[in-house]
Every structure is written in structure tokens, then in C-alpha cells.
Amino acid sequence: MFIAMNRFRVARGAEDRFEQVWTNRERHLAEVPGFVAFKLLRGPEHADHTLFVSHTLWDSRVSFEAWTRSDAFRKAHASAGANKDMYLGPPQFEGFEVVQAEG
């Protein structure tokens, strides 16, 4: 299993708009082999931003990497730069191989 996460520093006051953009966007994940699950997480609030994390679970790193090269990925990210004013910098990617899991 592989977990892919992107951390977003969303400017204070733009949280609801950010959630709307993510809720209403086309994801195209279900059509990709190896995709298991997606979650959008809202984290701690700071003076200038609120932390959000997109969290996807894949059956393997190979499946995740194939997604990043797919037409579905390009479609899902086609309007990614349209709302730059919501962000304090670019997202920070983190990828993790699952070493142990329960449940």
C-alpha cells in the first residue's frame, strides 16, 4: 500500500471556498487501477492559514505513479492554478509506503 498526501496552506478566510472547489471538482480517481480511497482533511488553524491535506490510498507506489502520468490525472488537475489566491505557496507532496496496517 502507498499513501500520497499533499499539504495545502490555505489563507485564512478562504477555507470555505477551498472546500467548495475540492467538493465540486471532477476527481477521476475511481477510474484509475490501484486507487483505494480519498480523503480531504482539515487540520490546525494558524495565524495566516489553515492546513488542509489531500490523502489518497493506493494499492502500490507503482499504481500511484501511473495515476500521475494518466489522462485522468491531467483532467483532475486541469484547473489547479485557477485559485492561487487561496494558497500560501504551492502544495507540499509527501508519499509513504505502508509498513504496517490494522483494520
TrEMBL record:
Gene3D superfamilies: 3.30.70.100. Coiled coil: none annotated. It holds the Pfam family ABM. InterPro entries: ABM_dom (IPR007138), Dimeric_a/b-barrel (IPR011008), Heme-degrading_MO (IPR050404). PROSITE patterns: ABM. GO terms for molecular function: monooxygenase activity. Residues 2-96 form the ABM domain. SUPFAM superfamilies: Dimeric alpha+beta barrel. Keywords: Monooxygenase, Oxidoreductase. The keyword Oxidoreductase applies. This is Antibiotic biosynthesis monooxygenase.
